[in-house]
Each structure stands twice: as C-alpha cells, then as structure tokens.
Amino acid sequence: MRADLHASPAPRDLSSTVYARQELNFTLSPSTRLLFTAQADAGVEQQGMLQSYAIATLEGYLSSEINGVYGYEQFMSTLDRRTGSGSEFLRGALDTGTGVGTGTLSASTYTSFTHFTSAVPEPETYGMLLAGLLVVGGIARRNRRAHSRQTRQA
C-alpha cells in the first residue's frame, strides 16, 4: 500500500490530506499464533510548509470465544514522521488460545500538510510597487510638460 502527497509552496493558503487503508478479515483455528510484519517508509520535506507529517500504521484485532467467555486481543505498530525520512518494520502478533478466533488486520497511511501565506509582503512586491510609481510619475511629468508647451504656444 502506498499513499503519496506532493505539493510545492502555494501562493495562497493550502491544506491537504491523503488517507489510505486496507483491511483483511480472517479466521484462525485453535492454538494458532499469527505474526505480522510490514516495512513502512515515510518521508517529510518541509520546504515552506507550516506543518506536514506522514504516518504508517499496522493494526490487528482478534476476538475469540472459549467455553462461553469472549475475549479479544489487539496490537498497533506505527511509524510517525514530522521531519526527514525513515524506514521501520511494523510488527504484531495475535494468539487464538484454545478457541477459534476471528480477526482483522489493517494497514493504513496518512499524509498531511498545511501551508499559510505570509501576511508581510515579499521584497519583490515593494519593487513592483516602486516600478509602478516611477512609471505613473514619468507619465504625469510628460503630460505636465506637454500641457505647459501648449499653454506657452497659445
């Protein structure tokens, strides 16, 4: 299972989340132990993001009945990354004991990021403002000179 989320810093506020989950239901015979192992890889690159993270989870749940008494067993193994990248084996085990067990194994990935634009203008914004003011000033000066020439000639 794989869930990827790729984004570059955006010119406006942006938030996104990707979630993927797979489940497997099973039945185990008495006196059975089931071992689970999955390799999880997670990587997070901040690159202008306010908050970003990736989570990979392996979960197992088993319920059984022995002589009219119900019981359950569960495990959860997680790889959680807020920065950088990492790889880890997620592991878990379920035992039925002397009764038949029914269970669920699930693997999930969760990726999220949030990007907020800055309320303070970038230096390029000031440069464009100054260039615009110079152009407007130049046009006003040219119009004023042309108007004064017309006034002198009349």
From TrEMBL:
InterPro entries, alphabetized: Ice-binding_C
A Pfam family of this chain: PEP-CTERM
Ice-binding protein C-terminal domain span: 119-145
Protein name per the record: PEP-CTERM sorting domain-containing protein
Native source species: Massilia mucilaginosa
